[in-house]
């Protein structure tokens, strides 16, 4: 669970660092973009300010404080009230891009297509976007990072009602394109639809907290919720392409996250197939309909039968029509695991493709060194493989829209210790090396990298105990202090891009 997963430093940082590979500082193309990312509920605060309506996260964190470590996002980083300070900080970091998400219930407090619009909410994002552009920073905007207007969950079950949700999301997206689209060149509809479906409607760890324990059917709800996000995404893409893109000229797509999977037993055909199946259940679920205009992967149809919704003829046409307009692949990636084929037939509750996920293989080798959170190990070699997998299957330039880690023991450190984040620096360095190798040695197109996160923030069910920021936030006072990784990112991207410009990379090869 998110909340019980903090890894305290049992060894000194030096020992934790010793187990990591050295960074090679491999070059990147001169036009490679880098930036940092956040999400509205995790940083904004201002939960009831200026007419904002409640989201399912306001409700979930207040109703289930035990699930969120007794914390909520009422204040978070207070980014809503510290906008100027945060803009100045972003500028000082030298980022090319800032990826943030819009809180739907700030713009439309009740969320629906016939509900009133809140101009003060619009004004906040206008100030943010204008402030970025004035500093030469490009906004990359996520429309949905998990904070559905609460009223839509109550009114018709939110994403469980595909037709209503699709229509309301399309209307909300249209509002964003019309008000902000003259200045936004990269749109992301949904952040990690897999996590929304499985953690919101299966384990119940994230809002709205559905699981069998709360009396819901976790054998069907996640697949319905996935279906709704795919169709709402496609409707938003169609709207953008038809009514806005001709004049606004931006790009639109979605962000899919996943681990990469290595076979538990490298000699087992069944385990190798399990890896592929696991990736199809994780990524292909959304990627095949959205990027290929195809049906769900055959492995999913086979296992899930009638529990996996069908696309109508009109929906198939919509997917086929919009697929080519998803011109980039947004990838959130943190870590990897081993996959072992289960011998027993899949349970109705299974969402993995009947695969057991492990951190150690059949020879007792760990997939990678542990970071400051139990689910995240440093697995840069597998990152390179995932880049190849996504490129081969979907053939879209990839933007890494999130990547990062907490340092071991970080939350228990003094400020001086926390800002000296050598473990994070090494993690970034290794993962950026993997991107360079994928580009220059494997021929994969990777166009940008956004570190998660701009600052320590509300880490969902883990509350404030897990810190992913390149900026330290002292939550009681809101004080921001740059960590060393912030300077490292600026310098490493400058060095790596200059190496290419200076001719150290010829014909795309090292
Ligand atoms: C991203 O999700 C989110 O987009 C971002 O908001 C978040 O802050 C960031 O990751 C860091 O967590 O505790 O064993 O149940 C990444 C996908 C899915 C990774 C849930 C952690 C919890 C595993 N996340 N998973 S566990």
TrEMBL record:
Belongs to the glycosyl hydrolase 1 family. GO terms for molecular function: cellobiose glucosidase activity. PROSITE patterns: GLYCOSYL_HYDROL_F1_2. One of its GO terms (biological process) is cellulose catabolic process. The keyword Hydrolase applies. Keywords: Glycosidase, Hydrolase. InterPro entries: GH (IPR017853), GH_1_N_CS (IPR033132), Glyco_hydro_1 (IPR001360). It comes from the Eukaryota. The keyword Hydrolase applies. Plays an important role in cellulose degradation. Shows hydrolytic activity against several glycosidic compounds. This is beta-glucosidase. Residues 45-71 are annotated as: Disordered. Its EC number is 3.2.1.21. It catalyses: Hydrolysis of terminal, non-reducing beta-D-glucosyl residues with release of beta-D-glucose.
């Amino acid at each position: 669970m998110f909340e019980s997963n903090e890894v305290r430093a049992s060894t000194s940082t030096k020992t934790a660092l010793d187990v990591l590979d050295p960074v090679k500082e491999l070059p990147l193309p001169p036009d490679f973009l880098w930036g940092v990312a956040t999400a509205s509920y995790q940083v904004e605060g201002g939960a009831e300010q200026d007419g904002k309506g409640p989201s399912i996260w306001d409700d979930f964190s207040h109703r289930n404080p035990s699930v969120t470590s007794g914390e909520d996002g009422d204040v978070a980083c207070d980014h809503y009230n510290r906008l100027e300070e945060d803009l100045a900080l972003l500028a000082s970091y030298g980022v090319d891009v800032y990826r943030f998400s819009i809180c739907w219930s700030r713009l439309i407090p009740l969320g629906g297509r016939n509900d009133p619009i809140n101009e003060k909410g619009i004004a906040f994002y206008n100030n943010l976007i204008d402030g970025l552009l004035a500093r030469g920073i490009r906004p990359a905007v996520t429309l949905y990072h998990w904070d559905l207007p609460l009223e839509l969950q109550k009114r018709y079950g939110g994403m469980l009602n595909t037709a209503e949700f699709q229509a309301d999301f399309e209307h909300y997206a249209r509002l964003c394109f019309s008000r902000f689209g003259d200045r936004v060149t990269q749109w992301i509809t949904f952040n990690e639809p897999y996590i929304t479906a499985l953690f919101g409607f299966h384990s119940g760890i994230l809002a709205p907290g559905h699981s069998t324990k709360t009396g819901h059917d976790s054998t069907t709800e996640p697949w319905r919720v996935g279906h709704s996000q795919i169709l709402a995404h496609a409707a938003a893409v169609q709207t953008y392409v038809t009514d806005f893109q001709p004049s606004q000229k931006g790009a639109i797509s979605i962000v899919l996250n996943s681990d990469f999977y290595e076979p538990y037993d490298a000699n087992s055909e069944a385990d190798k197939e399990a890896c592929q199946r696991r990736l199809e259940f994780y990524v292909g679920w959304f990627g095949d309909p959205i990027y290929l205009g195809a049906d769900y992967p055959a492995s999913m149809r086979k296992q899930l039968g009638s529990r996996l919704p069908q696309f109508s003829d009109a929906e198939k046409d919509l997917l086929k029509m919009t697929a080519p307009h998803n011109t980039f692949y947004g990838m959130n990636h943190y870590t990897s695991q081993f996959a072992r084929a289960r011998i027993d037939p899949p349970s109705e509750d299974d969402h993995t493709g009947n695969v057991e996920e492990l951190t150690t293989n059949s020879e007792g080798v760990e997939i990678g060194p542990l970071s400051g959170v139990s689910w995240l190990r440093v697995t840069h070699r597998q990152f390179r493989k995932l880049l190849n997998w996504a490129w081969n299957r979907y053939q879209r330039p990839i933007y890494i829209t999130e990547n990062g880690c907490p340092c071991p023991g970080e939350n228990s450190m003094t400020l001086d210790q926390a800002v000296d984040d050598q473990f994070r620096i090494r993690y970034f360095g290794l993962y950026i090396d993997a991107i360079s190798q994928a580009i220059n040695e494997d021929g994969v197109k990777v166009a940008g990298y956004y570190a998660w996160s701009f600052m320590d923030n509300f880490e969902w069910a883990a509350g404030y105990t897990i810190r992913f920021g390149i900026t330290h936030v002292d939550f009681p006072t809101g004080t921001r202090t740059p960590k060393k990784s912030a300077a490292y990112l600026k310098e490493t991207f400058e060095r790596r891009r200059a190496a290419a410009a200076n001719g150290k990379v010829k014909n795309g090869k090292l």
